[in-house]
Automatic annotation (TrEMBL):
GO terms for molecular function: ATP binding; protein kinase activity. This is Protein kinase domain-containing protein. It is found in: Membrane. Its main location: membrane. Residues 183-447 form the Protein kinase domain. It comes from the Eukaryota. One of its GO terms (cellular component) is membrane. Keywords: Leucine-rich repeat, Membrane, Phosphoprotein, Repeat, Signal, Transmembrane, Transmembrane helix. It is a single-pass type I membrane protein.
Length: 455
């Protein structure tokens, strides 16, 4: 399905409600009066987009790197806007991109390397500060500026390594290579956006999970972010980072192995596992995730936002206790809610409050998956949970009729509060945690009531 609203005289920011069109593959909003930034989660809003035309508007700010996650996109037109900053290198890696136009903006820095040979100099016209093929070469001053930044990043990594060795074990590449039989496919347990994950068995019998970052892209920022976040934080609902390796071009992160995999696998990949996750277990998992996030948002002296909470980054230990992972988009915030500027970490395009509220929105989607059993792209396909008062018809039928329907409805209502369109209408993470504690207490009372029948 495609939507074409070019030259309609539309005024306002990007219409985020378009996310409700779950089968949308084409969107043309060119020739209007739209302003503001391109949404930082554009790949979530337009999961299956193949054609995106936002040209001839007044969009401003940086181009969100998340566009690089639109894996199906063939045509991307952003010309004749007020965009600034650098073109995210991820856009160059889009495998299906055939047409790309960014002309007549205020962009700077190097042009990414593109897979497609159809993208010519005309695609970048009237951006005087852009450089690199197919445009003029980048000046030495610009190159040296970025060489210095790269050197600084390297030095920063080494500095953090020295500090974090108190908390996180530095491991040799050879040791990890041996523990995975040379990173054999037989040991492969996952394949994420940043790299592959292997199960490793050390000589002392310890079982670990090793994330081997892709060596064909620059992931130094993400590597540092993961170490500085998980390496310095300890909470029972955060995945323990217990080791790392930085040798030559290799970047590896070593975690405690979670025997039960991800929450996404339990909910969506195996019907038997999904049935094992009855409502009491789902409520307990939700409470654990909320406890971890509430501690990050409110309980640490430098507040932390995760940035990309999903069922895929929630891992389950042998007792189905949830552990939050994937902190490569995490950000620290000072007490006045201004993002700490590390110069090398990605800086949020939204305010501190918006960053917290984005976490809460994503957590709300996790709650909806828990109570409905549906994947995110299915949540709006029939009844729109985002725009109507929730009812038990929305819940997973396997959870209903067992004496906890009122608790399930409370759970569903909380989930819908978390995904409200306007961020200031969403609760804080502490409020979410308190409401889930009340639901959890009701869950315990219900379990005791059921158990007493068989005494």
């Amino acid at each position: 399905m495609s939507i074409t609203l070019s030259n309609f005289g539309l005024i306002g920011e990007f219409p985020r409600g378009i996310r409700n069109c779950t089968s949308l593959t084409g969107l043309n909003l060119s020739g209007n009066h739209l302003y503001g930034t391109i949404p930082s989660d554009i790949a979530v809003i337009l999961q299956y987009v193949t054609v995106l035309d936002l040209s001839n508007n007044t969009f401003s700010g940086n181009i969100t790197p998340d566009i690089g996650n639109c894996q199906y996109i063939n045509v991307l037109k952003l010309d004749y806007n007020d965009l600034e900053g650098e073109i995210p290198s991820r856009i160059g890696y889009l495998p299906r991109l055939k047409t790309f136009s960014i002309a007549n903006n205020y962009l700077t820095g190097p042009v990414p390397l593109f897979f497609s040979k159809n993208i010519t100099a005309e695609s970048f016209g009237n951006n005087p500060e852009l450089c690199g093929k197919p445009l003029k070469g980048c000046e030495d001053s610009w190159i040296w500026k970025h060489v210095d930044r790269a050197s600084f990043i390297k030095a920063f990594v080494i500095g953090w390594i020295l500090k974090l060795e108190k908390f996180v074990t530095r491991m040799s590449y050879t040791e990890l290579e041996n523990a995975t039989s040379g990173f054999s496919e037989d040991y492969l347990v996952g394949n994420g956006m940043l790299g592959k994950v292997y199960k490793a068995i050390l000589p002392n019998g310890w079982i670990l999970a090793i994330k081997k970052l892709n060596d064909w892209e620059n992931l130094e920022d993400e590597f540092v972010s993961e170490i500085t976040t998980l390496g310095g934080l300890r909470h029972r609902n955060l995945l323990p980072l217990i080791g790392f390796c930085a040798e030559k071009q290799e970047r590896l992160l070593v975690y405690k192995y979670m025997t039960n995999g991800s929450l996404d696998e339990w909910l969506h990949s195996n019907e038997v596992k999904a049935k094992i996750l009855d409502f009491p277990r789902r409520a307990k998992i939700a409470l654990g995730i909320a406890k971890g996030l509430a501690w990050l948002h409110h309980g640490y002296e430098l507040h932390v936002t995760h940035g990309s909470i999903s069922t895929r980054c929630i891992l389950l230990d042998q007792n189905l206790e949830p552990k939050i992972s994937n902190f490569w988009e995490a950000k620290f915030w000072s007490k006045n809610d201004s993002a700490l500027s590390w110069s090398l970490f990605p800086v949020a395009e939204y305010s501190g409050l918006g960053s917290y509220k984005q976490d809460i929105y994503c957590f709300g989607v996790v709650l909806l998956e828990l109570v409905t059993g549906k994947e995110p792209h299915e949540l709006t396909s029939s009844r729109n949970l985002f725009d109507h008062s929730p009812c038990l018809l929305d819940a997973d039928r396997d959870l209903l009729g067992k004496g906890a329907d009122d608790l399930i409805l409370q759970f569903l209502e909380l989930a819908c509060d978390c995904v409200k369109f306007f961020p200031n209408e969403r609760p804080t993470m502490l409020e979410v945690y308190d409401r889930l504690k009340n639901i959890s207490q009701g869950r315990r009372d219900w379990i005791q009531k059921i158990s007493s029948k068989y005494d």
